[in-house]
Amino acid sequence: MLRPTSLPHALAVVTAAATTALLVVLVGPLLPSAAARSGTAATVPFTSPVTSAAAGKAPRDPEQPLVPRIRSITPDYVPDHGPIVIRGTVTNASDQRWTAINVHGFMGSTPITTATVLAQAARVPLDADVGHRIAVPGTFASIHSLAPGQSAHFKVRLPHATLTTTAPGVYWFGVHVLGDNGQGGVRVAVGRDRTFLAYVPKSAVADGAQEDTALVVPIRSGVVRGPEGTVIDPAEWARSLRSGALHHTLALGRAARGRPLTWVVDPAVRDVVRRLARGNPARTLTAPTTRPTQGGESPSSSAGASASDSAAASATGPAGTVPTPATKRVSQRWLREVHGLLAADTDEVLGLPYGDLAVESAARYDPPLLRHAVGRSARALRGWGLVSSPVFVPPDGRTSADTIAALPRDVDTLLDDTGVADDATTVNGVAGHRVLLASTGAAQGGPGPVDPRSSLALRQRILAEAALRLIDDQRPLVVELPTGTHRIRPSFFSGLEVPWLRLTTLDGATAVTPTPLDTDHLREPPTDVPQLGPRLYRTAEELLENGQTLQSVLTDNHVLSRGLFEEVVGNASYAASREPFLALERTRIIATWVRDNLAGIDLAAPESVTLASASGRFSAIVSNALDVPVTVKVQAVSDPQLRITGGETVRLPPHGRTSVLLNASTDQRGVHTVTLELTNRAGQPLGPQAQDSFPMRAEQVSRLIWVIIGAGVALLFAAIFVRLTRRILRARARRRTGSITT
Q1: 3-state secondary structure at position 651
Q2: CATH number of 601-698
């Protein structure tokens, strides 16, 4: 038989019902009426409407002298036949001894049949009567006594005949604890724990019908780089890897034990963790290292290596950014484990735009950067041996039609179902893109008093949502699992193995024709939150362009621009957008660093050059003030009448300097302006800081001058001939005179 609950609780329920009825009259929406109360506790599967901001708030656990906690429900749904077994613990949270303790199961008599009512039920106060206490002899557990702070295990077995199912749907289910504290009075429930229990009989669905359910696990974190290129706050990252969100993500993946999961990955998280494993080096111009990494991964095995990986091992960031040896070890361990999970054959990997780029602002101010981030993500994951598909998942679950239209065609968008104004299917089509909706209700978890996202509470809510969709022929179900401070245990996944649910990947669950969705139904993100403005993107565009130019002249470093891109998107990410002015300032500092290094490669032209003929040679000085070797060319720009050749490729050592010879020729007399500029080997100029101009005067000498010069030379030789002739004649005359005298 069923044992009626106490009068005080019945009066409380009546009062709650009267208040709800008054709200219905004032607000307008028609709510299901409360069940009839004829000596038994009423079932209250709903509560008054609340704002969406409070939708995720489960009721708090009020003071309960005896605190029950359900640890397992076997099976975790209502079977067509057979009992349900509840196991758990009871803890005496009071300062009194309790005796004659009974633990009873309870179950609601009216099923919940819609997701809306289920969401309302999750917010019903804990002390509301939501189900009948089952008092059939042999169905409840007894505990002799509990001292203050003491706990005891219980096991409640409920035969199928005691389960009050009347129709398919979701039922309230849980335990009540009664006891005696020695003060007398009516024995009432002094402890409660509750959850949802789905009932899907075979007669309610077609033969073999199952609800396809995809569980989405995000791997994203606030990736922001400092002005020196180092990871900001490595200690906080270490806490996340050791016991925080990133640690719980791995635990969740291990708990799945080969069951299908869909991973939504920001590859920048992997690159940041790898940077920490290597000491968090600062940005540098030095050549990439060729030695194996500390994680045991050779550079050739990762095409997506970041520029931080190319930095010299000795390069470190400023004080406060150098990770401890323990941080390096936990980073290496996390990298090994996460790669193993993502590479599982049963799983699917989706890539977020690299760095968790703030897609809305990037789509508005810098679409090329958005496309680059999408492509970079695919390359980074492919470099890790993973096959991925691109996806956009806004953190607040909402976006605009303009943002979706700016995405590449192959990028799916995953929103919360609250991101649309009206009810919509899971798979929709917007502006030629697939827009998928995840269930916010399922992700919010159970009704309390326990943590609504604990393993059991979350699992029972997912089963409840899946059951309602299957009964109403709404498929599929997509749930983004929480990965914050909540630990999901292996029992969570084993409990999802019910006859009417099929766990699959997101691609497997959503392989249906999209339903067209009017763009007016999309709820855009709020406009009162900080946003990244156009100045950041203009600075970023200049920075990346100069960074590519700088890398092109570095003799050995081929990954500098890749690392600069990582820093740019980190400062244009959702995490950085919380402080847009700091993000802009960091980006400006990086841009200045790049410009200063380009300015260290200099060229000095002569002050002026005069050509005394149709051609001639002159030289320019090329210098390198950087600590690394560079390779450049000298290129001359002038008017078409002046031809300048030479300027071969020049390789300069660190702090080196050399002269470069060039040839000039012209048939046009006069002054010509010549501009010499440094370029990379492909002929791309390094910029205005590597240019120098000078005048070149062409003065060809006339023929008359040559005639005069020739005549002068002839006179010179004639004078020489005359002098020699006279000298010879005088010498002969002296010899004859001497001979006569003798």
Answers
A1: strand
A2: 2.60.40.10
